[in-house]
């Protein structure tokens, strides 16, 4: 394993599009070659070396390459986007599209993330120690094909539109979320350990949602069917099981209609 | 139009309008037009070892107007799928950013057609009420010359005049509408069906009656053909038939084509057909349902081949993810019910409607593969390539940027077989088609007929486009293909047609080595068929605006001149 270290040396005046910051793009390159990789600041073509001091050569392949960014990337987008293997660690905040469309490997953001992290993700692991803004693991705007696989774990809170059009994979928000969870989803699992304002599972066709705090406004299209014991992220809870969205189309499996499932703490 | 002299030297000239098939020669251009010869100071373009054709002519594509824009707004993901819009040469050279795959931006539309060596594109369905916007978009599409066909097949005035059997009034209304919308000819989309859609209904049969108007699709098509020939318009009635996209529709397709049998061509523009039947692929289906869905391309082409006064375009499925958009409102609702993807529906008061739904022609789905085969079978069964034109009904069956791929499939059995062999349900597909049994491979001459000479003649534009005779517009495409030694690898055919080695448009080099080097001088082509004042039509139209049938004021209806600042008007007096 080889580690490439990026030390931020300049705050971009516009947002810097750091789409080259992935183990896949770094693989097989020296520090000097990595400094020459492209990125855009607005419409102007820049180099990674314009914003980072780079040390260490990459490994032969993406899987052999670790990237560590030693400071704040609040104005750097697309970190780890489309990566397939290796790791990226940011010792600070990151801007939008962290780990978007990623297929494998691991991204760890130690600060907060802006919106659209892990969008249309297909595999791998994305961990954020702080908060995420909106559109965690959702579909690209307009697209009906959302997150397909992998895991996103946000140790803080998240904003709205989590797992929109989700098809697979897992999203865990350890604190609160705002509105629109798993809207239009047809698969996958979303776990929110804190409170949610509302609009949980609207137009959801299939998939699972767990809200371990309170849902302030429940969707009218969900109906309680039973109370179950379930393990959620390693802890067992007694949960009320709802199915829905009853206003949406649903497929059948073995003669049974398949609904989306919503689990909330069992009423005392 | 560019000033100065150009000579394209030593290429293999392919020009069906003069029956030239690969002869080595020169093409001289002066002040934007093709001439016999130029002086020795003319700029020389070396075309040695390359194919030289007239600029391409697209008879049917949806490239401008409200439904195209609705598609763009509704599909931001189409821009993402197009990949980067920054790194290409055009932008490096200082030209505009390009975006979108199936519904490209206006700039990308102009650049991509130019890169393929196309000079003229017909926007196939313009809602008259929204013609000003359509022309604004056309003006924003660089390089290529364009015209637009207003839709008439569900228009309240037209249906009213046709019900009463008033051919002259229908014609006078058409002439008025073409003039105020700067339109080119008579487009008909699902005649009667789109009007019925306002009642939540459709017209799937030729004799279904349109609610309230009590006319039938057959009467609308016949009436519009008669009015079209009364006016002697450059183009014929151009129809998207009823019952599009449904298994078993080939019978109604042939019945609709038969409506042309009694109608005589009358025009001074060299056009021979009275009906152009568009995107025939969508109308050549057999079977009783999706399970028994199969090709009836042979049956349909047998009729087309023996009937001289009709022309067709293919509407080839290209097996891409695309965006369907049509004035066939009820069809788009039906399609949305099949694929559950997002749907937009628009009503245009008194005139038409439109719908937009994304569609994925997935090679792993049997029906999509059969549709792909039908488009190619139509071309390969055609006997008269001057009446058979290459289209994808862009973007309905695939984006226009796939024309080079369609050309590759038509020119190479090997390329077709490679696709057939890649199908997951190959055996089931082969049971429903005959493409695999066809050995025919089209020649460059036939491709030039289908993309140049033929469509130009069908549009009544044969004097200007589609050939390289002196006097015609100086639109010349050079392709990196050796006529005498065509590549074994079909991919090279596609590559050559995708990016012209050079494209001269209106006498100016606009593409060099496949890349845009000039924004060119585009023109908007429209038709002014001058008729004596028709008091009844004037009164009917005026009343529709003053009595509130239209919600807008008549003063805001016409396309102002500033919206089409580079007009190329075909103006003539109608002979009654
Ligand atoms: Zn159509
Ligand atoms: Zn069309």
Explain what the structure shows:
- The complex is a heterodimer of chains A (268) and B (576).
- Chain A is mostly beta strands.
- Helix content of chain A is 3%, strand content 39%.
- Chain A is built from two helices and 22 strands.
- A 13-stranded mixed β-sheet of chain A has the order 5-1-6-8-9-10-11-12-14-16-22-19-18. In chain A, strands 4-3-2-7 form a four-stranded mixed β-sheet, with no helix packed on it.
- The longest helix of chain A has 5 residues.
- Chain A is elongated, with a radius of gyration of 20 Å.
- The model of chain A has no long low-confidence stretch (mean pLDDT 97).
- Chain B has 576 residues and is an alpha/beta fold.
- Helices cover 33% and strands 21% of the residues of chain B.
- In chain B, the strands form six sheets. In chain B, strands 1, 2, 3, 4, 5, 19, 20, 21 and 22 form a nine-stranded mixed β-sheet that branches. Chain B has a five-stranded parallel β-sheet with strand order 9-10-11-14-18. In chain B, strands 6-7-8 form a three-stranded parallel β-sheet.
- In chain B, helix 10 links the parallel strand 10 and strand 11.
- In chain B, helix 6 crosses helix 9, helix 7 crosses helix 19 and helix 11 packs parallel to helix 13.
- Chain B is globular, with a radius of gyration of 22 Å.
- The two termini of chain B are 35 Å apart.
- Chains A and B meet through loops of A and helix 2 of B.
- The site of one zinc ion has 6 residues of chain B, from loops.
């Amino acid at each position: 394993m080889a580690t490439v270290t990026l030390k931020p040396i300049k705050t971009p005046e516009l947002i810097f599009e750091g789409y080259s910051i992935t183990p896949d793009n770094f693989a097989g390159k020296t520090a000097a070659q990595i400094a020459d990789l492209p990125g855009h600041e607005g419409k102007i073509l820049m180099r990674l070396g314009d914003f980072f001091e780079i040390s260490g050569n990459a490994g032969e392949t993406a899987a052999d390459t670790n990237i560590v960014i030693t400071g704040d990337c609040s104005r750097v987008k697309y970190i780890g986007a489309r990566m397939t293997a290796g790791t990226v660690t940011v010792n600070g905040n990151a801007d939008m599209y962290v780990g978007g469309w990623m297929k494998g490997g691991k991204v760890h953001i130690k600060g907060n993330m802006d919106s659209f992290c892990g969008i249309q993700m297909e595999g791998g692991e994305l961990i954020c120690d702080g908060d995420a803004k909106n559109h965690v693991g959702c579909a690209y705007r307009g697209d009906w094909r959302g997150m397909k696989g992998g895991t996103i774990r946000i140790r803080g809170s998240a904003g709205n539109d989590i797992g929109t059009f989700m098809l697979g994979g897992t999203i865990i928000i350890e604190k609160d979320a705002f509105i629109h969870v798993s809207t239009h989803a047809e698969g996958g699992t979303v776990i929110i350990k804190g409170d949610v304002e509302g609009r949980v599972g609207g137009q959801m066709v299939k998939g699972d949602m767990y809200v371990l705090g309170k849902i302030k406004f429940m969707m009218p299209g969900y109906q309680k069917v039973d109370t179950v014991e379930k393990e959620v992220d390693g802890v067992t809870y007694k949960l009320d099981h709802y199915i829905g969205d009853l206003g949406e189309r649903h497929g059948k499996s073995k003669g049974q209609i398949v609904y989306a499932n919503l689990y909330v703490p069992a009423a005392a | 139009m560019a000033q100065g002299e150009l000579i394209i030297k030593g290429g293999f000239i392919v020009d069906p309008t003069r029956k030239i098939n690969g002869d080595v020669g020169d093409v001289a251009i002066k002040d934007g037009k093709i001439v016999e010869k130029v002086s020795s100071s003319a700029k020389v373009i070396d075309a040695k070892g390359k194919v030289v054709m007239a600029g391409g002519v697209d008879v049917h594509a949806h490239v401008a107007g409200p439904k195209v824009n609705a598609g763009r707004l509704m599909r931001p993901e189409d821009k993402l799928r197009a990949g980067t819009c920054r790194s290409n040469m055009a932008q490096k050279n200082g030209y505009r950013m390009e975006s979108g795959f199936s519904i490209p931006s206006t700039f990308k539309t102009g650049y991509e057609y130019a890169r393929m060596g196309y000079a003229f594109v017909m926007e196939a369905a313009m809602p008259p009420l929204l013609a000003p916007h359509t022309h604004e978009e056309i003006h924003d599409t660089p390089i290529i010359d364009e015209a637009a066909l207003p839709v008439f097949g569900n228009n309240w005035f037209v249906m009213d005049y046709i019900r009463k059997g008033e051919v002259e009034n229908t014609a006078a209304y058409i002439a008025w509408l073409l003039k105020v919308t700067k339109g080119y000819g008579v487009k008909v989309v699902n005649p009667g069906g789109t009007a019925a859609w306002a009642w939540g209904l459709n017209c799937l049969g030729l004799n279904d009656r349109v609610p309230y108007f009590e006319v039938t699709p057959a009467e609308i098509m016949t009436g519009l053909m008669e009015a079209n020939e009364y006016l002697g318009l450059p183009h014929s009635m151009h129809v998207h038939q009823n019952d599009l996209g449904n298994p078993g529709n080939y019978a109604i397709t042939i019945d609709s084509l038969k409506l042309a049998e009694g109608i005589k061509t009358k025009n001074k523009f060299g056009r021979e057909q009275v009906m152009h039947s568009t995107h025939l692929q969508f109308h050549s289906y057999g079977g009783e349902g999706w399970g028994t869905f199969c090709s009836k391309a042979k049956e349909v082409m047998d009729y087309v081949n023996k009937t001289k006064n009709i022309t067709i375009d293919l509407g080839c499925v290209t097996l891409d993810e695309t965006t369907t958009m049509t004035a066939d409102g009820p069809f788009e609702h039906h399609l949305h019910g099949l694929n559950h993807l997002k749907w937009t529906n628009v009503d245009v008061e008194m005139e038409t409607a439109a719908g937009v739904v994304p569609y994925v022609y997935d090679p792993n789905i049997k029906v999509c593969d059969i549709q792909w085969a039908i488009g190619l079978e139509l071309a390969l069964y055609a006997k008269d390539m001057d009446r058979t034109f290459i289209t994808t009904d862009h973007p309905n069956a695939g984006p226009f940027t796939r024309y080079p791929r369609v050309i590759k499939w038509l020119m190479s059995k090997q390329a077709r077989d490679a696709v057939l062999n890649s199908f997951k349900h190959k055996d089931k597909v082969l049971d429903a088609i005959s493409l695999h049994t066809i050995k025919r491979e089209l020649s460059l001459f036939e491709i030039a007929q289908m993309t140049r000479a033929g469509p130009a003649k069908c549009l009544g534009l044969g004097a200007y486009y589609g050939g390289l005779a002196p006097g015609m517009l100086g639109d010349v495409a050079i392709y990196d293909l050796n006529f005498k030694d065509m590549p074994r690898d079909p991919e090279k055919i596609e590559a050559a047609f995708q990016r012209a080695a050079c494209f001269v448009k209106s006498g100016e080099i606009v593409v060099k080595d496949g890349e845009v080097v000039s924004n060119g001088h585009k023109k908007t082509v429209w038709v002014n068929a001058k008729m004596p004042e028709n008091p009844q039509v004037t009164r009917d139209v005026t009343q529709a605006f003053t009595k509130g049938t239209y919600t807008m004021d008549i003063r805001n209806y016409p396309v102002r001149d500033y919206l089409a600042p580079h007009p190329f008007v075909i103006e003539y007096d109608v002979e009654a």
